[in-house]
Fold this protein.
Amino acid sequence: GAVVSQHPSWVICKSGTSVKIECRSLDFQATTMFWYRQFPKQSLMLMATSNEGSKATYEQGVEKDKFLINHASLTLSTLTVTSAHPEDSSFYICSAPIMGGTRTYEQYFGPGTRLTVT
Amino acid sequence: DAKTTQPPSMDCAEGRAANLPCNHSTISGNEYVYWYRQIHSQGPQYIIHGLKNNETNEMASLIITEDRKSSTLILPHATLRDTAVYYCIVRVGGYSTLTFGKGTMLLVSP
């Protein structure tokens, strides 16, 4: 099946620094990718939609200047957490849609990136 | 997207069938029922989806009631590795995002 990878799988950074997370579609092209965030014991919350060759669209309440998204190719989207703070510590997950056999879209998720800001 | 209601947790013995219910009484005619699961500290995994007919794949079966107001995900022979949070999501089949609720925490025990 389709594979989406993320790198790194976990990262620890100091408060005030920036962290880049990569999301790659390994065996398919993705003009759109989605970024989610999940805090402990909570469900996934959509942060933004990454569009290849154009600006990302952010969900309400998500600071676009803090969470920079770049989708420069059909297989790679990056999320940069700028000036990270401890409250940004979370599990970040990306996904990409693929059309299935019934001509509906199925989302394939990456394994996630655990960010801890100290 | 229509809302769904799932029990917060369920238990199942290893080797037995796990039947996970989902209510979606406000589902629209063009909305599909999708099931995903999330094993602890991993990204969600697509399981199955359907519109109105029952569906089966190598992972599970999906039974949708005739009025489409509820559905059941069936794992025919649950294993310990099936312990996860299972999410039932209704959405149109297009390029849209997924809205995750709280899901059902399925615990499979020896």
User: Anything to note?
Assistant: The mean pLDDT of chain A is 92. The first strand of chain A starts at residue 4 and ends at 7. The interface with chain B takes residues 4, 6, 32, 34, 43-46, 49, 91, 93, 95, 97, 100, 102-112, 114 of chain A (CB under 8 Å).
